Amino acid sequence: MRYRIIPLVISLDKKTIKQLLASHQTELSPKLGQNYLVDHRAVASFVATFVPSDVIIEIGPGIGTITSAYFKGYKRVILIELDQTKIPLLQDVLTQANDGVYPEWVEILHEDFLTVDTTALGLEGKTYQVVGALPYNISKRIIYAILHWYPTPLQCSFILQKEVAQKYHADIPDETFLSVSTKLFGSTKLGEIFSPGSFYPSPKVSSRILIIKDFLATTLNDIQKKEDIATFIRKGFEMPRKKLVNGQLNVQNMKVRNLRPQELEKRDWESLFDETTLRT
Fold this sequence. Notes:
alpha/beta; Rossmann fold; 2 domains; two-stranded antiparallel ribbon; 9 strands; elongated; disordered N terminus
C-alpha cells in the first residue's frame, strides 16, 4: 500500500517557509541540523517507502514538510521535536493541511529523541515504524538507539548523509562496523539520492534514503546478546586494515584469521563471538 501525497492549503516551498518562520519569530538552527526536505517530488519518494502500521513516529518533524504529506494515512502519528519554537508552527501547518482543524490523532512531544521513554509511548502489541530526515551530526546515535528498542519496529525509513547511508548498507569485501552490526538486528535497503537543493537550507552534501526492516530480535535478552556481539565487532574494526590474526581479538579460527574485518560477514562474526565466549 502506498500513501498519496496530501494536497496542502499552503505550499511549503522555500519562500513560504521563510514567511512562516518570520511570522512565528523563529529561525532555523544549524546546531539542531534543521535542513527541511522541501522538494515535493523528493517528499513523495520518501513517503512512498513508508509501510502500513498502527503507529508512525517521526523524528524531528520541524515544521511538517514531510509530516503534512502522510499524516492522514495513519490512525496515530507521534512527532518528536526538540525545538520548542517550531511546535506552534508545526501545529499551524497541520491544521491548515487538515481543513482548518487540528488532527487529534497527531501527538507532538517536545523531547529529545535520545532520551524518550519508549514504554510511555504505548507501543506494546502495536505495529509501528520510525521515520525522519535525521540531523547528520547525531544520526548514528539515533539509529543505535532504535536498534535497541523493544518491542522492535516494523520498519525504519531515514534520510541520512549519502556516504553514511551507504556505510550502513555495505557488503563484503567492503563491510563496515555500521553495516555488520546493523545486520545483527535487521536488514537494510538503500533508496533514492537527494541533492542538496532538495532541502532548505541546502546542506553541503547529498543525502540518501536508508531503510531498516526485517527486525530479528524477539526478546530483550535477544537484543542484549546482539549488543554484546556488536561490541565484539567494534573491537574487531579498531584496526580495519590489519588481518584479524594481528588485531585485538586473538582470533584462532583458521578460516578467517587471515582476513580483514571488512571481509567478514555477519555469521562469521557471530561464530567468532561464540568461540571466544567459550574460551573465556
